[in-house]
Structure formats: structure tokens, C-alpha cells
Specification:
The protein is mainly α and 131 residues long. The protein has helices at residues 23-35, 38-45, 49-62, 83-112, 122-129, and strands at 13-14, 20-21, 68-71, 78-81. It is built from five helices and four strands. Strands 1-2 form a two-stranded antiparallel ribbon. The longest helix has 30 residues, at 83-112. This is LysR family transcriptional regulator. InterPro entries: Molybdate_resp_trans_reg, WH-like_DNA-bd_sf, WH_DNA-bd_sf.
């Protein structure tokens, strides 16, 4: 193990009209595929059902093609990812891999350049969480 801190990159698309696509929506969409419902996906990733539903609704309206199909009802309810939804996940994950590979050298250089004795100020910690 090394004393050099690790770094991660995140990919977020900010479309010109204000729409955003990033790791949170993709992770939730993948969880919906794994668990078969928005409720189960929300529980699995520690998100409120309301927040998950709003994100899935936004994602489903964001593109010309549907991303999910919901089946409401007491029995047999659930959510399926559409073929386009699966393609969206694949495209996003491919862009993520390509981005990480393209920035690997620069990230490594920046990581090596980090101050070893750095300690965040308490009041600055909350500001850095915001971005």
C-alpha cells in the first residue's frame, strides 16, 4: 500500500438545455434493472423512493425513446429497462472508461503532486462537498 492518495474521475454530461446525465442516474437505472422496481432499487442504494422516482421520471423524459417501462398495480408491478435504457447504460459506461483512460496520466501526475500534509479546514469541508 502506498501513501499516495487515490483519485477518481466522474463523468457528467451537462446538455445545453440544462439536462444532466451522470453517475447517480446511471447507478439508479442499473439498480432498477437488477431489482425490478424503483422502490427496490431505491432501497438498495439508500435513496428515498420519492427521489428515485423523480430521477427516473426525469431520465425517462430526457430522451426521445423511453428508458424504463413501469407496470403499476398491486400484483405484478415493477419496472423494466427498455432496449434504449440498456443502450444508454452501455454508452455512458463506455464514455466513462474512455474518459478515465484519456485522463489517467494527468490524474496520476496531479495525484503525485498533492501535498502530503494537507488537512482540510472544518469550514471548508462542507464547501468542498458541494463541488
Amino acid at each position: 500500500m502506498t501513501d499516495t492518495p487515490a483519485a477518481r474521475t466522474f463523468l457528467r454530461l451537462d446538455f445545453a438545455d440544462g439536462r444532466k446525465l451522470g453517475p447517480g442516474k446511471i447507478m439508479l437505472l442499473e439498480a432498477v434493472g437488477t431489482h425490478g422496481s424503483i422502490l427496490s432499487a431505491a432501497k438498495a442504494i439508500g435513496m428515498s423512493y420519492r427521489r428515485a422516482w423523480l430521477l427516473m421520471d426525469e431520465l425517462d423524459r430526457m430522451f426521445e425513446e423511453r428508458v424504463i417501462l413501469t407496470h403499476p398495480g398491486r400484483r405484478g408491478s415493477g419496472t423494466d429497462i427498455t432496449p434504449f435504457g440498456h443502450r444508454l447504460i452501455a454508452l455512458y459506461r463506455a464514455m466513462e472508461r474512455q474518459s478515465a483512460k484519456a485522463t489517467e496520466g494527468a490524474v496520476a501526475e496531479l495525484t503525485r503532486s498533492l501535498a502530503k500534509a494537507y488537512q482540510p479546514r472544518q469550514d471548508a469541508a462542507k464547501a468542498s462537498e458541494a463541488g
